[in-house]
Design goal:
Layout lengths: L19 E5 L5 E5 L4 H10 L7 E3 L6 H12 L3 E6 L2 E5 L8 H5 L12 H8 L1 E5 L12 H9 L3 E4 L3 E5 L8 E3 L5 H11 L5 E5 L5 H13 L2 E5 L3 E5 L8 E2 L5 H13 L3 E5 L7 H10 L2 E5 L6 E5 L5 E2 L2 E3 L8 H11 L2 E8 L10 H6 L3 E5 L18 E6 L7 E3 L3 H13 L3 E5 L11 H7 L3 E3 L1 H4 L15
Parallel strand pairs: 2-14, 3-13, 9-10, 17-19, 18-19, 22-23
Antiparallel strand pairs: 1-23, 1-24, 3-5, 4-5, 6-8, 7-8, 10-12, 11-12, 14-16, 15-16, 19-21, 20-21
Helix pairs in contact: 1-2, 1-7, 4-6, 5-6, 6-7, 8-10, 8-12, 10-12
The protein binds uridine-diphosphate-2(N-acetylglucosaminyl) butyric acid.
Length: 475
């Protein structure tokens, strides 16, 4: 792998120059890669292990930084986390203990997962300390739904300068709750808290994403009593104790769609082994509407979905992101890059996060024609219509993209920058590569497997994983 050394100098506002990759664009991505367990289930499943009275085993865990962060947090709470290789993780919560606040605060800002420790820690220890949260900067990302639900179930929340201290002096009890919006995280919060609470919890307007369904399946294995009704209603009957689980998570449908969009934008052909049609049906409809081709292989071991650009022009589309079963917000950013190559005007209305179109500024510097509006450019006005949020985009294509310097803003936006760099003519320098490691396993190795020409300091540093293997942090 090599790339022409760039003559451009470093702008002092760029992040660490060692955290940079040089991408030489213009080559279609072709080949095959595999996706493993979904990041957005695996991290929650690891937290759920805290609820069991016996060890849990999680299969197909990807080697990504979010898993390392949760591993670190669990260990601080006395959970034994052991990697048995090949993505197998054993989590033993026999000795759960209160973690040191200063040590926990080392993880502040690294992830949003700590908020989900509340229920399990309250059940195990009667007290939870939650450091400042992190995660992608794609909107305000408040936690009011989480805290309101916990309070309704009997928790007392104290805000301290270090973080949140949460107690449950009289224990946690079931109640009737209605989420103002079907939040994935708040639904998980209620599930992880209500399963061991006293009595019955009814959660109205719950999220129903496949990752939620998989978490419910895992909790059911542990002995939880959860019924999913129509109209986003979950009914959880608290039980006195739960056991450990053995669980193989659903495959990562966000990563699968990311590589599918990379194939489309670079006029390539990528087989994503492990991708499952049932989790991607809405995405596949849009992929086909844009002009992408796909072929599903249902083999349970080696199956997957092959995605390719069939030649000729792609077509423009109008879409709105939405909660499941709508078009996922996480699919939006990679798809927008492909839409810069489609003929005509595409419209994207982002209705889940108020600030998830910032990554398009970089695409414009590369030659894309994208205008971002604060009005709702969709069939249905959304929550962000009157706040001045730039949450609708009009993309006019096809555009010839040129390589440029790019600074990764967040996980999915960063992947999109890479796709744009790969689709562009010339060389790009992509800074902030470590953010990709949060959710894309073996990113460098997968790019190489698909024939991308990528090089640079981040390749030489441990931060970018080059090959699979046991989890660094869980060894
Ligand atoms: N919201 C509130 N108050 C709350 C919670 C959420 O106003 O207390 C709002 C959010 O601000 C947002 C909307 O509700 O506007 C939806 O947020 P949600 O809670 O559903 O998102 P999340 O649980 O924080 C997870 C994924 C995201 C994914 C969303 C939507 C994880 C760790 N993160 O976030 O994934 O985009 O659900 O499906 O599961 C990613 O993987 O890159 C990623 C950002």
């Amino acid at each position: 792998m090599s790339a022409e050394p760039s003559a451009r100098s470093f702008d002092s506002s760029y992040p660490d120059p060692g955290d940079m990759l040089v991408v030489r664009g213009g080559t279609p991505l072709c080949g095959e890669i595999r996706v493993r367990g979904a990041k957005n289930l695996v991290s929650k499943a690891m937290v759920a292990a805290l609820l069991g009275s016996t060890p849990s085993t999680l299969y197909d865990v990807p080697a990504i930084r979010d898993v390392e962060v949760v591993t670190g947090l669990l260990r601080l709470h006395g959970v034994r986390v052991e990697s048995l290789g090949d993505g197998r993780l054993v989590l033993d919560p026999a000795n759960v203990e209160t973690a040191d606040v200063e040590e926990l605060n080392v993880h502040a800002g690294a992830s949003r997962i700590p908020i989900l420790f509340c229920g399990p820690l309250l059940h195990r220890l009667g007290r939870a300390f939650i450091p400042d949260l992190g995660g992608c900067r794609i909107g305000g990302r408040p936690i009011d739904f989480h805290l309101d639900a916990l309070r309704e179930m009997g928790a007392v929340v104290d805000k301290t300068p270090d973080g949140l201290v949460i107690t449950a002096p009289d224990g946690l009890h079931g109640t009737t709750l209605r989420l103002p919006y079907p939040s994935v995280g708040a639904t998980e919060q209620v599930l992880l808290t209500a399963v061991l609470a006293d009595g019955i919890t009814e959660l109205h307007n719950a999220a129903v994403e496949p990752e939620i369904t998989d978490l419910i399946a895992l909790l059911q294995k542990m002995g939880a009593l959860i019924t999913a009704h129509t109209d986003r209603l979950l009914r959880i009957e608290g039980v006195p104790a739960l056991r450990g689980y053995a669980h193989r998570p659903l495959p990562d449908r966000l990563e699968a769609a990311s590589w599918a969009c990379a194939a489309l934008a670079t006029r390539g052909d990528v087989l994503v082994r492990g991708a499952r049609q049932a989790d991607l049906m809405t995405f596949l409809n849009v992929y086909r509407a844009v002009g992408g081709e796909f072929e599903v292989d249902d083999d349970p071991v080696d199956g997957g979905i092959r995605f390719w650009h069939p030649g000729g022009d792609l077509g423009a589309v109008a879409l709105e992101t939405d909660v499941h079963p709508g078009f996922m917000t996480d699919w939006q950013q990679p798809l927008v890059v492909a839409l810069t190559q489609a003929r005509g005007l595409s419209i994207v209305h982002e209705t889940v996060y108020e600030n998830r179109l910032g990554f398009t500024d970089a695409l414009v510097t590369m030659g894309a024609t994208i205008q971002v509006y604060s009005a709702c450019l969709g069939a249905t006005p959304c929550r962000f219509g009157h706040g001045g949020y730039r949450h609708s985009a009009v993309i006019s294509g096809p555009s010839k993209l040129q390589g440029n310097d790019l600074v990764i803003p967040d996980l999915r936006g960063g992947f999109s920058h890479f796709i744009a760099a790969l689709a562009a003519e010339g060389t790009s320098r992509v800074f902030g590569v470590h953010l990709i490691d949060r959710g894309y396993e073996d990113f460098g190795a997968k790019l190489a497997a698909l024939g991308a020409t990528v090089d640079g300091p981040a390749y030489e540093r441990a931060g970018l994983r080059l090959a699979g293997g046991p989890l660094e942090a869980a060894r």
